[in-house]
Amino acid sequence: MPLHLRTTVTEVGEEAADLAEGGVVILFAEGAPPELAEVSLLHRVSEGPSGMAPGIGTPIRIGALEAPITAIGDSAWKKVTDIGHVVISFTGAEAAERPGEIIAGKIDGETLAAALQPGAEIVIGS
What we know:
By secondary structure, the chain is an alpha+beta fold. The protein has one domain: M1 Pyruvate Kinase, Domain 3. It has helices at residues 16-21, 34-37, 76-83, 109-115; strands at residues 3-12, 24-29, 41-47, 59-62, 65-72, 86-89, 101-104, 121-125.
């Protein structure tokens, strides 16, 4: 399985943990406007993003946590490649409700929030 993205969390917004407890993680590249940064994980890409969107079953890892992609919105990967932004919902749903969203397998919200630390690596793919 190809590597689609490898990035490192550089800052955790003030409201990001609350969203994660509900199963939602928002990634935004460093330099995001303050109103977006407060709800996001700011990150710095070390590899990727690949030109091809990940498929269903591709793993997403945040630190030691891992869940497979179960759905991907039509414009989600384009946003990753264009501006380093994506919403990842760890709900296990089989369809994305929004075009810019990636859905992954369910992860307990408290466990997910605890994994969101500066320095945590996020990997999509191998």
